[in-house]
TrEMBL record:
<dbReference type="Pfam" id="PF01368">
    <property type="entry name" value="DHH"/>
</dbReference>
<dbReference type="InterPro" id="IPR038763">
    <property type="entry name" value="DHH_sf"/>
</dbReference>
<protein>
    <recommendedName>
        <fullName>DDH domain-containing protein</fullName>
    </recommendedName>
</protein>
<dbReference type="InterPro" id="IPR003156">
    <property type="entry name" value="DHHA1_dom"/>
</dbReference>
<feature type="domain" description="DHHA1">
    <location>
        <begin position="365"/>
        <end position="449"/>
    </location>
</feature>
<dbReference type="InterPro" id="IPR051319">
    <property type="entry name" value="Oligoribo/pAp-PDE_c-di-AMP_PDE"/>
</dbReference>
<dbReference type="GO" id="GO:0003676">
    <property type="term" value="F:nucleic acid binding"/>
</dbReference>
<feature type="domain" description="DDH">
    <location>
        <begin position="168"/>
        <end position="307"/>
    </location>
</feature>
<dbReference type="InterPro" id="IPR001667">
    <property type="entry name" value="DDH_dom"/>
</dbReference>
<dbReference type="Pfam" id="PF02272">
    <property type="entry name" value="DHHA1"/>
</dbReference>
Length: 475
C-alpha cells in the first residue's frame, strides 16, 4: 500500500459509472466496491473495469455499512470517494459511516433527481460536493473531481500561509507571464496586498512583453537575494521549484508549479506540482473558482495571458483543465489590455543580436544551433530560438548565449520529437541546471564547468559541441 500516493474509492452500483471513473483517475490507487449478493452486477463491474491493469486489486468487497470497511483505508492520504447508490436509505447510511470513519476524505456524491430538487452544494465544511445526475451530464466528471480537490487544497494552503505576517511570492529570475499571473492570483486568494505579500525574484524582468504586462496591470516585482528570504515569515514559490536554482534557499513553505518535478520535496509543507498542466495559471484559476473568489477583469486578463503565453495560444501541451480555465476566464478579460501585452514593440537592440545569430548558424539532421555570444539581457536568447523554429525542415533549435558568466541554452522543438526537457537533463548530467517541457527547455552551464567538461568557450567550440550533444541525444 502506497499511502502517500492517495486513494480513489468508488462506491456505486452502476457499472458504467464505475468504468468511467476508473479510466479517468490515473494518479491514485483505485478501489471499486462490489455488492456481495448481486452476481450479475459483479460481472458487469468486472467487465467495465477489464481494460484497467490489475483488475483483481481494483475490485473490493465488504459491508459498506460497517466501520471496518472504511477503517482499512485510513492510512491513505489523500482519500477521494465517489458515492452513488440508487437506494436512498442505504446511501444515507453509507454516507454517515463514511463521514465518521474517514473524516479527512473528500467526497463526490451523486443523487437521483433534478437539479432543482438536488441542487449543487458543498457540505460538511466544504469536504463534500453533492450534485444530481442531471447536472453531471452537463459537466465532465473530471472537472468535478478537480473542483473537490481544489477546495481542499485552498483550505490547506490558506492554513499554511495565513500564519505569516509577511509572505514572499517567489518567481524565477526574469519571471514570465505565467509566473506573474500566478503570483497575483495567489495574493488575491489569500486576500492580501503587495506590501505584506510582495512578488519577488532573484533577477529583474527584462522581456518586453513581460514588462508591458507589469506596466499595464500595475504589477511590481522586487529583486532580492536568496539570503533575503529569511526576512519573510513564509515563502511561496510559483511556476518554479527549489531545484531550478543554483543556490540553496533558506526556506520554502509552498510550491505551486506545472513543470516536471526534478527533486524530492516531501519536506516542504505544501507542494502542488502538475506536470501535465499547460500553465501554473490554470492551477491558480481552479483554486480561485473552488474558493468562490471574485476574479476581476485585471486578474482574469493576467491569468488568461499566462495560459496563452505558456501554451503558445493553446497549441502546445494543453489538457482539458487548461481549456476549461481559458474558457471560464475569457468573458471577463480586458481585450485591449491583452492585445497590448501580446504585441509589445521589440527593442532595437534585438536587431543586431538576430543578425549575428543568423550569421552563426549550424544545422544537421534537422537540428539548428546558433551561438549569439555575450548578451546584456538573457531574454534575447529564447527570442532568437522562437524565431528560428520557423525555418523549414527544422525540428530542433538550440540558441546559445553567454550571460553573467553562464552559458545559457534555449531549446525549442516541433513537438512530435523527443521530449526537450528530458534531452536537456541528459545533456546537463549534473554539470549545470535546467529542464523544461516536451517542446521547450533551458540549460545553464557555469562557464567554469563548461571549460572543465568541454574545453574552450570559443564560438566554434561551443557551436560544434552543442550540435554534437543534440545529435547524440535528440535524434
Amino acid at each position: 500500500m502506497d499511502s502517500k500516493r492517495g486513494l480513489f474509492l468508488v462506491i456505486c452500483d452502476d457499472p458504467e459509472l464505475a468504468s468511467t471513473l476508473v479510466h479517468i483517475q490515473k494518479n491514485m490507487d483505485i478501489k471499486v466496491w462490489l455488492p456481495n449478493k448481486q452476481n450479475q452486477l459483479q460481472t458487469s463491474l468486472i467487465e467495465a473495469c477489464e481494460d484497467s491493469d490489475k483488475v483483481d486489486d481494483i475490485l473490493v468487497k465488504g459491508d459498506i455499512t460497517k466501520p471496518s470497511f472504511f477503517s482499512q483505508w485510513k492510512e491513505y492520504d489523500p482519500i477521494c470517494v465517489v458515492l452513488s447508490l440508487k437506494d436512498n436509505d442505504k446511501y444515507s447510511n453509507v454516507r454517515e459511516m463514511l463521514l465518521e470513519e474517514l473524516p479527512e476524505s473528500r467526497i463526490l456524491s451523486f443523487q437521483i433527481g433534478h437539479p432543482e430538487e438536488v441542487p449543487r452544494k458543498l457540505v460538511d465544511n466544504d469536504r463534500e460536493l453533492v450534485l444530481s445526475w442531471t447536472e453531471l451530464l452537463s459537466r465532465p466528471i473530471s472537472a468535478e473531481l478537480r473542483h473537490i480537490e481544489s477546495t481542499h487544497r485552498v483550505k490547506e494552503i490558506r492554513d499554511i500561509l495565513m500564519e505569516g505576517d509577511k509572505i514572499a511570492l517567489l518567481l524565477q529570475p526574469d519571471p514570465d507571464p505565467d509566473g506573474l499571473a500566478s503570483a497575483l492570483a495567489l495574493r488575491c486568494l489569500l486576500g492580501r496586498n503587495k506590501v505584506s505579500t510582495p512578488i519577488c525574484s532573484f533577477g529583474k524582468v527584462t522581456r518586453p512583453e513581460n514588462i508591458a504586462m507589469m506596466q499595464l496591470l500595475d504589477l511590481e516585482v522586487i529583486t532580492i537575494k536568496p539570503e533575503d528570504l529569511i526576512n519573510y515569515d513564509k515563502v511561496a514559490m510559483l511556476d518554479t521549484q527549489p531545484a531550478h536554482f543554483t543556490v540553496t534557499l533558506p526556506r520554502v513553505d509552498v510550491i505551486i508549479d506545472h513543470h516536471p518535478m526534478v527533486a524530492n520535496y516531501s519536506h516542504i509543507p505544501y507542494c502542488d506540482i502538475r506536470s501535465k498542466y499547460g500553465a501554473t495559471s490554470t492551477i491558480l484559476t481552479e483554486y480561485l473558482r473552488a474558493a468562490a473568489v471574485n476574479i476581476g477583469q485585471r486578474l482574469a486578463t493576467a491569468l488568461l495571458y499566462g495560459i496563452k503565453a505558456d501554451t503558445l495560444h493553446l497549441n502546445r501541451e494543453v489538457i482539458d483543465a487548461d481549456l476549461y480555465a481559458f474558457v471560464s476566464l475569457y468573458p471577463d478579460i480586458n481585450y485591449n489590455l491583452l492585445r497590448r501585452m501580446e504585441k509589445p514593440e521589440l527593442p532595437m537592440r534585438f536587431a543586431p543580436v538576430l543578425a549575428n545569430a543568423l550569421l552563426n548558424m549550424a544545422f544537421q539532421d534537422k537540428i539548428l544551433v546558433s551561438f549569439i555570444g555575450n548578451v546584456e539581457r538573457e531574454d534575447l536568447i529564447p527570442q532568437v530560438a522562437d524565431f528560428m523554429l520557423q525555418f523549414e525542415n527544422i525540428e530542433w533549435v538550440v540558441c546559445v548565449g553567454i550571460f553573467e558568466n553562464n552559458i545559457v541554452m534555449s531549446v525549442r522543438n516541433v513537438g512530435y520529437v523527443k521530449n526537450a526537457g528530458d534531452v536537456v537533463r541528459r545533456i546537463l548530467n549534473g554539470i549545470g541546471s535546467g529542464g523544461g517541457h516536451r517542446t521547450m527547455a533551458k540549460a545553464i552551464f557555469p562557464v567554469a564547468g563548461w571549460k572543465d567538461k568541454f574545453g574552450s568557450i570559443t564560438e566554434e567550440n561551443i557551436r560544434s559541441t552543442v550540435l554534437n550533444l543534440f545529435l547524440e541525444e535528440a535524434t
